[in-house]
Amino acid sequence: MKGTNLGEFEELVLLTIAGLVSDAYSVAICDELEKYTGRSVKLGVVHAVLNRLEEKGLVKSKMGEATSVRGGKRKRYYSVTSAGKASMLKAKELRDQLWSLIPQVALKRIS
Amino acid sequence: MNKENDPRPPRWAERLLGWYCKPALLEDLQGDLHEFFLRNCKSKGVRVARLTYVIDVLKFFRLYTIRKPEFLNLLIHWIMLGSYIKTSGRSIVRNKLFSAINIIGLSISMSVGLLVIAMISDLLSYDRFHANGERIFRVNTHHTDHLNRKLDLASTSVATGKKIQENFTGVEAATVLRRGFAGDAWFGDNVLSVEGLWADHRFFDIFSFDILHGDGRTALDNPYSLVLTETSARKLFGESDVVGKTMKLFSSSDTSDYTVTAVLRDVPKFSHIQFEAIGSFTTKEIIEKDNAGFGGWESVWMNYVYVLLPENGSLSAIQESLDKLCAEQNKTVERKSIALSLQSINDIAMGPDLSNPIGPTIMNIVIYVLAGLAFIVILSACFNYTNLSIARSLRRSKEVGIRKVIGAHRSHVAWQFITESVIISVAALVFAFGIFMFLRPQFLNLAPDFLKIVQLDLSGPVVAYFLLFAIFVGIVAGILPALFFARINAIQVLKNATAVKVFRKVTLRKALIVVQYTVSLMFIASTLIGFKQYKHFLAFDLGFTTANVLNIKLQRNKADVVMKKLSEIKDIEMMSRSQMVTSVGSYWGAHMRYSDPNDSINVWYNTIDENYLPLHGHKLIAGRNFTPKVSTHEESEVIVNEQVLKALNIAGHDAQKAIGEVVTLEKKKLQIVGVMKDFHYGKVDSSIEPVIFRYSNEPDGFINAKVLSDDLPATLDAIERKWKKVDRVHPLSATFYDDQIEEAYSQFSVMSKVIGFLAFLAVVISSIGLFGMVVFTTETRLKEISIRKVLGASEGVLIFVLSRGFLLLLLTAGVIALPLTYLFFEKVVLSEIVYHAPISVFDMIAAVMIILVVALMMIGSQTLKAAKTNPAQVLKAE
After folding, report:
1. What is the domain range of residue A54?
2. Model confidence pLDDT, tens digit, residues B729-777
3. Do the Cβ atoms of B415 and B485 come closer than 8 Å?
4. How high is the pLDDT of residue B501?
5. Of A91, B310, B655, B684, whose CA is between 20 and 30 Å from B846?
6. Nearest CA in chain A to B55
7. What Rg do the C-alpha atoms of chain B give, in angstroms?
8. What integer pLDDT is reported at residue B748 of this predicted model?
9. According to the 3-state scheme, what is the secondary structure of B517-567?
């Protein structure tokens, strides 16, 4: 977990933030993840990961406008930083590379 | 969803979140949780949503969300500490009455707390001297008999120990101990009565008793080897290095020469295993070689097995093997089952209540109850502090206001008041310590067991615990006043001092007083009921007479010889012999059969001679007493009680017809020659069970002597002189039957003494608290009283007006306390005791009267003083 290496869940969160573009705040991220992964995602876990990503400098955040919902509390919107983008790309690259190493035959044999 | 019915998360949870969360994260988090809350409200309902909210708030308490303590704030606390101490000191000195009440209350309640701390500390230091203590476990037995009665034992069978030694993997060592090594050791002309254990050769592989001389590894290998402690070696041989010397041991089962193979440093006080000597287990095996039951799976009453786990050994693996062993072995026994479990050696001294303990233990429940009661009394003293501080807040609020104007934070004010209460409680600790030193010997002498088990000595850690305890008590006492003062609004206070809503806290204060008095009342009522119960037991008609009967322990002397000597004393009117003493909690059991060979019952028995029944006044319903027989006579007769007829259905329960029937006992055919009236063989708290008397003309337990004497000390002296002529080794052990009964019920007397003492403390504390409140109220209402007086109120009316409120509180406490106490005793305590005294309303009323009288004296004296003041003196100042 040290350095810029991404954990599996961290990567998912990062991707979701990028996907949600300007609407990426904690509850929305939670819902989105739940929708795509199909497993129940706890708010506490998402919060912890967001906090960690921000500490690593992979995302940045700013407070939104106050609204009447949410008990009048502002939302914190997240966006991916360039460092975040770099590590996302790096992760994808690594995967693609590994995928390309697998011979077609080998995959077929696994049923 | 309209505005009014808008569901809201619990306020306290919101506040908690605000309190611990970093400001940077707080708003976002609050918002998120709120959003989820609203969502849950719709899908799962408001209640579930609120609960989830609370759980989520608690779950978010993580390292990254917690607010870091602000360094500056801490620094200010540190700098201001001097000021806090100074102002606290001044305030303590200025309000002498207030400080005295608090210090007295706290110190007497804390002294009990110190006692409990010292006791727990003693119990926790048990068995810590074993080098491998963390890895030593004892095998306990859970025995279920054919009537499905369960018994938890500290002992187990020899078979268990042998099986573990032979077959178990994952055990580094196991040793078998056995109770009952006792006898008189002779060396030349020196004689010493020693008591100890039998133990096998692995004993020293497990336990870390210091070996002074000899080799522990081989000391217990051979038969007739003996390990002595230093003290007993010195007593017997006059020196400690006695390895290789031989001595003769006379015990009830044999007489042999033993060779000393090792000498140990004396057993530490805080060891649950105590002994003066250890005989090698191989010796016992030789002695018992004809006893088939000795190594049997069922004989779980006398032996103890301890195992040593290897480093990183698995407890559950051994438990599994034990379960397997039990499943296997239980097939060999009929109608009973045995289960085994492991108990860490560190949990033995303060563990659950087990039968057949190897040494004295204190049940953990006793400690919990004692600690709980002490806690209640301490809490009561803390209430006094809280009450009086808040009541007096009017006078301190200006100080708080100025502090706040100058820049004090809420937390600073709170800390100031906490500091003050801690100072008071540490001052109280000094006095509490004095009381503790006074209480210590009283407490130790309360029950003989306490003295054996605990010392209550002071050591470094204990004193440190005391100090921590005092600080804790200070914080508990000061927390409510501190929060109260911290919330004072500076502007309001400085503008107009009376604006502080002191009396907004009136309900809290009233509630605290009611709680205090409820507790005091319950204590007093419990004491009265408990004491009455104890007296009831002592005066209980057992079904025979115990007056003037002196039970003399024979201690392996020939009964004939002793009786012959004693018969020379003319004050001894009559003598009989018996194997044991009934009605004091000892039981001797056997199985008895009647016509149906498969239906056996458990009977309790005593073996007696022909003089026993007349001497004790046992009443025969039918048949006759035993007739004297010669000692070689085969046992042939038995006297039974009515319960036996019922249990075995003999002769249609008709006593007359039962005479002459034959029963089987331990494979002997015995004829019923008499039926006696039921009497209490056991203690009065259990019901009467089948009991029989067997005959022997020389039972070897006790001589029961009926003493009729005008000069008791002289008679006892004479008995002692005669005894010395027969037995010069053992001191005379003779106790009056009535005293033995008193001792058998000593737990009740100890209980009522302890609770009585706590009741006394609770009453004193709540009374001085009440006194403080009354003084305060009358002082603040002095002007009101004066005006009432000017307008024509009489003193009587004034006293009524002033004390009405307090009396109402006391009555409320009474209404709560009495039914609670009644139910507690009726349903919980006394329902366990079969023959208990009824709870009388008189006791309850007496408890209320005691409280009322004390309280009225407090209230009356102060209100009278206020009512008698000259109104002109008070009013002229305005």
Report:
1. 8-109
2. 788 889 999 888 888 888 778 878 888 888 888 888 888 888 888 888 8
3. no
4. 56
5. B684
6. A44
7. 35
8. 78
9. HHHHHHHHHHHHHHHHHHHHHHCCCCCCCCCCEEEEECCCCCHHHHHHHHC
Task: Give pLDDT, residue B498.
Answer: 58
Give A-chain residues touching B42 at CB under 8 angstroms.
none
CA atoms within 13 A on the CB side of B572: 23
- CB-nearest to B27 from A44, A69, A74 is A74
Q: Which two tokens stand for residue B194?
A: 């020693």
Chain A residues 22-41 with CB within 8 Å of chain B: 25-27
Number of domains present in the structure of chain A: 1
Min Cα separation B488/chain A (Å): 28
Q: Which residues of B touch A74 (CB under 8 A)?
A: 27-28, 31
Whether pLDDT at B370 is above 90: no
| Residue (of B316, B220, B313) closest to B264 by Cα position | B220
In a domain, A53, yes or no: yes
Structure tokens at B451: 């003295």
Confidence band, pLDDT 50/70/90 cuts, at residue B140: very high
Residue A3 falls within a domain, yes or no? no
Per-residue pLDDT for B137 more than 60? yes
CA distance B165 to B344: 18
- Contact at CB, A69 and B35, closer than 8 angstroms: yes
Token code pair at residue B32? 């998120």
- Phi-psi region at B271: left, alpha or beta (left = phi > 0; alpha = psi -120 to 50): beta
CATH label of the domain that carries residue A38? 1.10.10.10
> Is the CB of B31 less than 8 angstroms away from the CB of A74?
yes
What is the pTM assigned to this prediction? 0.72
**In this model, does residue B700 exceed pLDDT 90?**
no
Q: Which residues from chain A sit within 8 angstroms of residue B28, using beta carbons? A: 25-26, 63, 73-76
Residue B204 CA to residue B261 CA, distance in Å, equals 13
Q: What is the pLDDT of residue A2?
A: 46
Residues B120 and B113 sit within 8 Å (Cβ to Cβ): no
Which of residues A80 and A105 earns the better pLDDT score?
Answer: A80
Decide if A2 is inside a domain: no
Q: What is the pLDDT of residue B2?
A: 41
Report the C-alpha gap between B707 and B709 in whole angstroms: 6
Confidence of residue B343 (pLDDT cuts 50, 70, 90): very high
Ranked by mean pLDDT, the top range of A73-82, B348-357, B630-639 is A73-82
Average pLDDT value for residue range B694-720 = 86
Contact B30 A27 (CB under 8 A): no
From B257, B272, B336, select the one nearest B298 (Cα to Cα): B336
Q: Please state, in angstroms and as integers, the Cα–Cα distance from residue B760 to each residue in B601, B645, B756, following that order.
A: 49, 50, 6
Any domain includes A74: yes
Per-residue pLDDT of B775-831, as tens digits, reads: 888 888 888 888 888 898 888 888 888 888 888 888 899 889 888 888 888 887 777
Q: What H or E segment, with its residue span, contains residue B225?
A: strand B225-229
Q: How far is CA B228 from the centre of its chain?
A: 33
Alpha carbon distance B129, B207 (integer Å): 9
Residue B45 C-alpha, separation from nearest chain A C-alpha, in angstroms: 18
From the list B49, B281, B322, B76, the residue with the least C-alpha distance to B176 is B281
Collect all residues of chain B within an 8 Å Cβ-Cβ radius of residue A51. 25, 64
The answer to whether the CB atoms of A73 and B27 lie below 8 A apart is yes
Whether residue B30 and residue A71 make contact (CB cut-off 8 A), yes or no, is yes
Q: Which of A47-56, B157-166, B465-474, B631-640 has the lowest mean pLDDT?
A: B631-640
To test the contact with chain B by mutation, choose from A34, A47, A49, A60 the residue with the greatest count of B C-beta atoms within 10 A, namely: A47
Residues of chain B whose beta carbon is less than 8 angstroms from a beta carbon of chain A are: 25, 27-36, 38, 56, 59-60, 62, 64-65
